[in-house]
Amino acid sequence: MSEITGRIWKYGDNINTDVIFPGKYTYTVTDPGEMAKLALEDLDPEFSTLVQNGDIVLGGKNFGCGSSREQAAFCLKYAGVGAVIAKSFSRLYYRNCINAGLPALVLPQLYDQLNKGERIEIRLDRGIVVHKGVEYHFPPLPEEIIDIFNHGGLIPHIRKILKTDSMQRKE
Length: 171
Known about the structure:
Elements: E1 3-10, H1 17-20, H2 32-38, H3 47-50, E2 56-59, H4 71-78, E3 83-86, H5 91-100, E4 104-106, E5 119-123, E6 128-131, E7 134-137, H6 143-150, H7 154-170
Parallel strand pairs: 1-2, 2-3, 3-4
Antiparallel strand pairs: 1-5, 5-6, 6-7
């Protein structure tokens, strides 16, 4: 998962977890397909039907603020979102994205350069976003974080490590 290419879905500042995944579903919806259908339901009713694999959510300041609802990261991943880019993130939401295996990138300079529907390419291992031939740089992600993304999230990553470790001990 070192490269992600997709269209931009652009939203503003202070998009909270209740807007990303409506709180009224927190304890009743656990199926990944249903969670995907509810992503951004109140903010952008067309999102879940039009989003394509690899698309990128672009947010303003303080994206993911509010409660630490993990579903707000997972619903975007289940909807096919390849990454979330924002001017800034809530710390808890940023961590929930990593746990979900969803890249979250802080690139404040990119927000004003992109419009909804434009295509970009993200090169996680090189710390580059490419838009219309222009490169925007961010610190390359640590190999450990990219491994979490490649394994599909923190829990699958830990399972893979434990399985590998167990296999090595048997030898």
